[in-house]
Amino acid sequence: MLPAFAHIHAWIFDLDNTLYPASADLFGLMDVRMTAYVARTLGIGDLVEARRIQKSYFQQHGTTLAGLMAEHAIDPHHYLADVHDIDLDVLDEDRRLAGLIARLPGRKLVFTNGDETYAQRVLAKLGLDETFEAIHDIHACAYRPKPEAASYASMIEAFGIDPQTSVFVEDMARNLAPAKALGMTTVWIDNGSEQGHDADRSFVDHIITDLADWLHSLLGDAQ
After folding, report:
1. Measuring CA to CA, which residue among 11, 7, 9 is closest to residue 214?
2. Burial (CB count <10 Å: 0-12, 13-18, 19+), residue 33
3. What is the DSSP string of 149-185?
4. Residue 185 has pLDDT above 60, yes or no
5. What phi and psi, each to the nearest 5 degrees, are found at residue 11?
6. What is the full DSSP assignment across 82-121?
7. CA within 20 to 30 Å of 35's CA: 62, 64, 117, 216, which one?
8. Per residue in 107-136, pLDDT tens?
């Protein structure tokens, strides 16, 4: 283990575009369903306008779900079951990643703005369903999504996490800011899914482009 990570006792990973490549574009499939859900819920016939509203909710509330709950009191279980009803055939088992995560010393957790049912489907498809201690999902966060501070507090409390000995790996850089403020070591997967060239990176400790390659660089070849 590299000295910079020798103190880490908890390894916390985002799910989408983190534990699988952004090129799989599962979010693209969900995005289409989100737009359609907004259109149906608000009675909007113009999908362009529905998408504009959807994205405004995402920007203002952290997720489309949070916006729909705040503005229209929708049932989160109904919404999540709908938007996560996507085909996962684009995902393949990733034995290399599974082996590397298994070798990490300490606890391993998934922290996602999705729900546990969807997360379990994704992890099973990747061959990671036996890899993590637990999944902290949007229900467990009381529908306060990352990057809201309350979601991180709920995760820390639920699992007795010490932020000073934890690392958080995310593809959305803005979700790392609260983790850094709490004292976590932050790792941003720069895969093109978020953050412009001139954006603030002061809360990012490490920038990587491939999760498995990075973990291999930490752990080396020893089995």
Report:
1. 11
2. middle
3. HHHHHHHHHHHT--GGGEEEEESSGGGGHHHHHHT-E
4. yes
5. -110, 115
6. HHT----TT----HHHHHHHHHSSSEEEEE-SS-HHHHHH
7. 117
8. 999 999 999 999 999 999 999 999 999 999
Class of domain 3-22+92-219: alpha beta
Residues forming beta bridges with residue 78, ordered by sequence position: none
pTM of the model: 0.90
Residue type, 125: K
DSSP string, 29-71: HHHHHHHHHHHHHHT---HHHHHHHHHHHHHHHSSHHHHHHHH
Give, in words, the CATH class of 26-83.
mainly alpha
Joined together, the tokens standing for residue 99 give: 């082996």
Tell me the chain's radius of gyration from C-alpha atoms. 17
Contacts of 109 (CB under 8 A, 6+ apart): 10, 11, 12, 13, 132, 133, 134, 135, 136, 155, 159, 161
**Rounded-to-integer distance, Cα 63 and Cα 207, Å:** 24
Q: Where are the domains of the chain?
A: 3-22+92-219, 26-83
Helix, strand or coil, per DSSP, at residue 148: coil
CA 43, chain centre distance (Å): 30
